[in-house]
């Protein structure tokens, strides 16, 4: 079945306060959600007008440079000093902190308030993920979560996992929408590996009775 994605844009303008611009370092990677993409160029122009350099990066599964999805958890290799995220909520900007040791400034275009995310905001999540990785390494029976949703189906990474760790037993658990209670039917599994949306392992790890780790975090070791 074909899927049509319709972008919903915010009609109001986005103003970057002068006070915030002064707080930003020399080179900034600017991101926003799809709602505010109509204002991203004007925001970049204002920041650059005060002597700062702005770069717009296109990430995976996006159509536009500067667009950020909550699943864009990756280490950015480009040359810049900090992130600036324009949008409401913490879901998207926290994704920037999980794999990068750079400051993340956040501007809420509705309240006009801005703040800087601190390492303490994701410290507990990172600590749990390190523990989950150790749990995987010591586990023999591993459940691999595989989603059939478009953009989340990563069976090849599951196969790669088996090749890397032939001493472990892998059990493929295939689903469209994950029902956490169904995982109780597999009490012998010692650890879960997530190949679907990476936010499952970060934001919903508390729903698992066993450690859960993203497949990319294992394959990068």
Give a brief outline of the structure.
The protein is α/β, with parallel strands linked by helices. It has 7 helices and 9 strands; from the N terminus they run αβαββαββαβαββαβα.
Looking at the structure, the CATH topology of the largest domain is Rossmann fold
The percent of residues in helical segments reads 25-40%
Low-confidence stretches: none
Describe the sheet with the most strands. 5 strands, mixed
Beta-strand residue percentage: 15-25%
The total of helices stands at 7
Q: Examine the secondary-structure arrangement and name the CATH architecture of the largest domain.
A: 3-Layer(aba) Sandwich
Question: What are the salient characteristics of this protein?
Answer:
27% helix, 9 strands, 7 helices, 4-stranded parallel sheet, 221 residues, 19% strand, Rossmann fold, alpha/beta
List the helices and strands and how they pair.
Elements: H1 18-23, E1 27-32, H2 40-48, E2 53-55, E3 82-86, H3 91-97, E4 104-107, E5 114-117, H4 120-137, E6 141-147, H5 155-164, E7 169-175, E8 191-194, H6 199-203, E9 212-214, H7 215-219
Parallel strand pairs: 1-2, 1-3, 3-4, 6-7, 6-8, 8-9
Antiparallel strand pairs: 4-5
Detailed description of the structure:
This protein is an alpha/beta fold and 221 residues long. The protein has two domains: 18-118, Rossmann fold, CATH 3.40.50; 123-219, Diphthamide synthesis DPH1/DPH2 domain 3 (Rossmann fold), CATH 3.40.50.11860. 27% of the residues lie in helices and 19% in strands. Strands 2-1-3-4-5 form a five-stranded mixed β-sheet, with helices on both faces. Strands 7-6-8-9 form a four-stranded parallel β-sheet.
